């Protein structure tokens, strides 16, 4: 009886001690590390390169005097609208210009050269016109094949871009032909009796094309030669974008690539398309004094600026050029990736624990990276893992 009474306190005390031990263990047990997570998913992915650029009027013309003489003060200023055949400036030829046999021989040679240029420009315009008709026919055939699924979208895009490039080429060829004809007419006028008077009378210098005065090189009255540029004329609506890409970025850019023109001064961005990637590069010193190999890339605007908004010549812009696109790409946020042992790694959330996983990563755009190996769609990864996180540690998602 006494023995049973002595044992009762221990029967009560032992469970109490066990409970206290469990509470102490729970209190000192490390709590799960709070982390932020994201899911691995498939979807469209775009990789692009961004670089500063500037606008440039595609077709521009330098106006020269037909012969040496005294240029009167030029009244036109940059921005003035001019029509083909309108007076740009007035020149008083030198009295002895047409009495010099050597000068006459030079004028004859200039006539021959300008007429040959007209023939070459006319042939080029015809060639580009024929190429455009063939490209349009090919694009029409591609339209039918695209609807039936017999051709890839990329092939259709290339055919459409070829049409756009040739349309721009037709415009440029027509402009070049018009300029060549004007130069030939000016050269012939020098040799035409009475076209350039020898009694000190003035001769008008006429606009070769419709457009605007882009720049005036000679404003004041002074003596000039036939090789002195007076002003530059062009059409501001005929704009292209000139971008100087790093050669390592330019290798991924091809004619027809899509681009967005941003930070151009207006609202939103403007769609553009790459037309030319120049085959040669050049060396340029960066702002921090590092030599870089650059390549000039040109793009045409697909979207025009809104009405009333002026985007002129040599305006600064930022171009974002698409170098690759995918439709059903397995991708992970780049914030989940880190380098370990020279390889890409990520922590995957499995059963409340962080599991270290080795990955094979492909293309990335700064926000997302293409996953080639190591992750499956729907898995959860830990974003911006702290240095204290180790493989197998308990974590709690969504508590940051």
Topology:
Layout: H1 2-28, E1 33-39, E2 41-57, E3 60-63, E4 69-71, E5 81-82, E6 87-93, H2 101-148, H3 153-191, E7 203-206, E8 211-216, E9 222-224, E10 231-234, E11 239-246, H4 247-250, E12 258-262, E13 270-285, E14 291-301, E15 316-333, E16 338-340, E17 343-350, E18 353-364, E19 368-373, E20 380-383, E21 395-397
Parallel strand pairs: 1-21
Antiparallel strand pairs: 1-20, 2-11, 2-15, 3-10, 4-6, 4-9, 5-8, 6-7, 8-10, 11-14, 12-13, 12-15, 13-14, 15-19, 16-17, 17-18, 18-19
Can you offer a commentary on this structure?
It is a single chain. The protein has helices spanning 2-28, 101-148, 153-191, 247-250; strands at 33-39, 41-57, 60-63, 69-71, 81-82, 87-93, 203-206, 211-216, 222-224, 231-234, 239-246, 258-262, 270-285, 291-301, 316-333, 338-340, 343-350, 353-364, 368-373, 380-383, 395-397. The protein folds into four domains: 33-44 and 327-397, conserved putative lor/sdh protein from methanococcus maripaludis s2 fold (Beta Barrel), CATH 2.40.420.20; 48-55 and 237-326, Elongation Factor Tu (Ef-tu), domain 3 (Beta Barrel); 63-87 and 203-234, OB fold (Dihydrolipoamide Acetyltransferase, E2P) (Beta Barrel), CATH 2.40.50; 96-199. The longest helix has 48 residues, at 101-148. It starts with a helix and ends with a strand. Strands 2-11-14-13-12-15 form a six-stranded antiparallel β-barrel. The protein has a four-stranded antiparallel beta sheet with strand order 3-10-8-5, with no helix packed on it. Strands 7-6-4-9 form a four-stranded antiparallel beta sheet, with no helix packed on it. It is an alpha+beta fold and 400 residues long. It is 30% helix and 38% strand. InterPro entries: YknX-like_C. This is Efflux transporter, RND family, MFP subunit. Residues 329-396 form the YknX-like C-terminal permuted SH3-like domain. One of its GO terms (molecular function) is efflux transmembrane transporter activity.
């Amino acid at each position: 009886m006494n023995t049973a009474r002595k044992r009762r306190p221990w029967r009560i005390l032992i469970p109490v001690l066990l409970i206290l031990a469990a509470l102490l263990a729970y209190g000192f047990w490390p709590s799960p590390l709070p982390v932020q997570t994201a899911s691995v998913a498939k979807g469209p992915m775009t990789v692009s390169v961004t670089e500063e650029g500037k606008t440039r009027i595609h077709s521009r013309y330098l106006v020269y005097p037909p012969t040496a003489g005294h240029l009167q003060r030029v009244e036109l200023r940059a921005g003035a609208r001019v029509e083909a055949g309108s007076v740009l400036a007035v020149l008083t030829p030198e009295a002895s210009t047409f009495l010099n046999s050597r000068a006459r021989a030079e004028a004859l040679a200039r006539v021959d050269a300008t007429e040959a240029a007209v023939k070459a420009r006319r042939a080029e315009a015809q060639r580009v016109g024929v190429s455009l008709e063939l490209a349009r026919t090919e694009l029409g055939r591609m339209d039918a094949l695209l609807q039936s699924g017999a051709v890839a979208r990329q092939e259709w895009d290339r055919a459409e871009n070829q049409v756009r490039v040739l349309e721009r080429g037709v415009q440029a060829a027509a402009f070049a032909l018009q300029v060549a004809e004007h130069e030939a007419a000016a050269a012939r006028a020098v040799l035409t009796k009475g076209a350039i008077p020898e009694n000190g009378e003035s001769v008008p210098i006429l606009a070769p094309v419709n457009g605007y005065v882009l720049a005036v090189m000679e404003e004041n009255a002074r003596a000039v030669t036939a090789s002195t540029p007076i002003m530059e004329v062009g059409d501001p609506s005929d704009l292209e974008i000139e971008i100087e890409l790093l050669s390592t970025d330019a290798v991924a850019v091809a004619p027809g690539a899509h681009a967005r023109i941003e930070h151009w001064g207006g609202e939103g961005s403007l769609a553009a398309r790459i037309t030319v990637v120049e085959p040669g590069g050049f060396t340029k010193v960066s702002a921090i004094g590092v030599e870089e190999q650059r390549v000039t890339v040109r793009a045409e605007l697909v979207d025009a600026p809104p009405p009333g908004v002026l985007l002129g010549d040599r305006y600064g812009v930022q171009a974002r050029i698409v170098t690759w696109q995918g439709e059903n790409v397995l991708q992970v946020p780049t914030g989940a990736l880190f380098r370990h042992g020279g390889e890409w790694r990520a922590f995957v959330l499995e059963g409340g624990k962080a599991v270290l996983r080795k990955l094979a990563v492909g293309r990335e755009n700064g926000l997302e990276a293409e996953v080639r190996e190591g992750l499956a769609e729907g898995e959860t990864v830990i974003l911006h893992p702290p240095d204290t996180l180790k493989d197998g540690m308990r974590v709690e998602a969504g508590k940051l």
